[in-house]
Protein: LacI family DNA-binding transcriptional regulator
Organism: Dyella choica
Amino acid sequence: MGNIPPVGRKVTLSDIAAGCDVSRATVSLVLRGSPLVNKHTRARVEEELRRQGYVYNRAAANLRRRTSSSIALVLNDLANPFFAEFAAGVDEVLGDTGFVTLLGSTSESTERELAVLSSLMEHGPAGIILSPAEGSDAQQILSAVGGVTPLLLFNREVSGDVAACDHWDRLFLDNQRGARLATEHLIGQGHKRIAFYGGHLGSSSCRQRRAGYTEAMKAAGLSVEPSWMVECIPNRLDAVAQSEQLFQGKTAPTAAVCYNDAVALGLMLGLHQRGLQPGRDFALTGFDDIAEAAVSAPPLTTLAVTPRDRGRQAAELILQRVKDPSPPPRQTIAPVQLLVRASSCPPPA
Amino acid sequence: MGNIPPVGRKVTLSDIAAGCDVSRATVSLVLRGSPLVNKHTRARVEEELRRQGYVYNRAAANLRRRTSSSIALVLNDLANPFFAEFAAGVDEVLGDTGFVTLLGSTSESTERELAVLSSLMEHGPAGIILSPAEGSDAQQILSAVGGVTPLLLFNREVSGDVAACDHWDRLFLDNQRGARLATEHLIGQGHKRIAFYGGHLGSSSCRQRRAGYTEAMKAAGLSVEPSWMVECIPNRLDAVAQSEQLFQGKTAPTAAVCYNDAVALGLMLGLHQRGLQPGRDFALTGFDDIAEAAVSAPPLTTLAVTPRDRGRQAAELILQRVKDPSPPPRQTIAPVQLLVRASSCPPPA
DNA sequence: CCTCGCCTTTGTAACGATCCAAATGTACCC
DNA sequence: GGGTACATTTGGATCGTTACAAAGGCGAGG
């Protein structure tokens, strides 16, 4: 059973063909499990494949067949647990389908996004899943990816000409409904002065969540003070820093719907610094249900978005589109679920 | 300026050549910025490239040149923020170098790891960065990746025949020193009965951290009760569940060095349930410095491992190896830094 | 006018797989 | 024995790019 040592040059189809005295075409048929080849021949070829340690060259096959076996996954912030979970979900499904994931991380820079997209395009992905950086422009993205490769927009809308990108599929969270549910829940707890805290107006998800909040407030006949709408960078640090602003107006809020969990956890710290105990003196809700939300003090009422499931869904959507590009583009809104925990207490008496 | 509409078929070198009446070879030279081509010709070709919206086909080029422009990144748990940060660091460097990241996530399953590795190998990566699943076998991994492609082992050792894989590069955290530092710090605070809590003996990082702990205890002449060495799945949930075990022995510990931050945060909850307040009645330390560690209640003393820097470093190491495979394999031990916070209080008086 | 060198350009054969039409058996029936 | 059907195998062209050797044009120098 002389094993061929793993030396420099790679083993190709021709080596196998030569090794067991058949044509390259036959070996190729064996590789693809064609029923055409004789049982006995197949066995001989398979033995030779093992013996020489053959590795299929998918790039060569893709070139010849004009196919692709990769999907590009471009994320604005891979380090964010939400997107990490999302990526894990995407990769899970793609892996099972024989596709490989081409990863690209843009660190929220539109410039880098374009660079990453063009670089990935050169590898000819069958499709692209893109969670755009803040401020991404539809026209520019289109010119980077070309009109041919299917693209699924995740999580955020892009700015600019709608016509430029109206053939892209979309997968968004139900931001508006989520924020409305959170707001309604706080109203149900008896709050009347409710703020919307954090996030960037530059991002579509923030605008949508604000819209849900406004909708609920309006429906309940509650008014909103300007000082209750505070923007901040959606991370814990800036959320602490900006929390003062909530209390600058004439009347202080008794509760806040926060842009996301990170912001909510930051606000908790800010409240502590003011001598307020979140979940007793002040109610708040988050968005995302990150791992930490369940175990913070107090545990955070928030909206579960199940990013891993979203990743799986995104992969399935793009695969469908790759399989059949003809149906009209589809926009999918994924539901979110309100998880009530101790942070959303009733107002102090 | 008639723009060619973005129709089905992809634009190739030949289309450009035909479009401006030069040979394919010339276009190829232009693409690669060769100084051979005449300035005037170059301009004409470049104009045509733009006009037709040409996209370089790197797969075809790689096939011809027998090169590769991708690096495989295979992680045992992408959803873990530690690895997500790591991946972001890897991708950052690779992106800057013109390489593309092929992602593979194994969900801590050795079976899936082998499947993912073989699938990625078919795309002919120039190198592989592997953070193995628990229980991975060197021999099996070797047979999946072949002896040719450079591999960098990250974070964990693999079991089995050392000779099988002694030509792999390695990048590990200084687990032993980290745990020793944490233990010494607790000893310095006055603790004598210190436990080592959590982790799986199946993983080499856990064994190394235990070794550091044991080393420090021995050096200080402190003895260790068997009931102070508790295993658990390294997540918050199981850490809560197993925390009872710490107090089953004759003498209860007053402090614990935890396998990692997740475990430490779980133990905090377990302590609360026993009526003990962590950071006052019981001291503990973590490992990793996840975002949450700085803001837990109390803030967690832990070891910073800067996963993003590790990712960058891993990318650089594998790129070096790809560039020149000849130097002998190298093992790199990345330093960790003790961050003292409120959780590591002195023992109660 | 021929030769030489220089600057550009180009035809052709690869890279490793697949497709396709055509060629080889070989079994069976009339 | 010839013809037909069926099962199996195969050469050669091809995917989009690059390497290489060789060719073309052109000015200078002898």
Summary: The first strand of chain B starts at residue 70 and ends at 75. Residues 10, 12-14, 24-25, 28-29, 31-32, 56-65 of chain B lie near DNA strand D (CB under 10 Å from a C1').
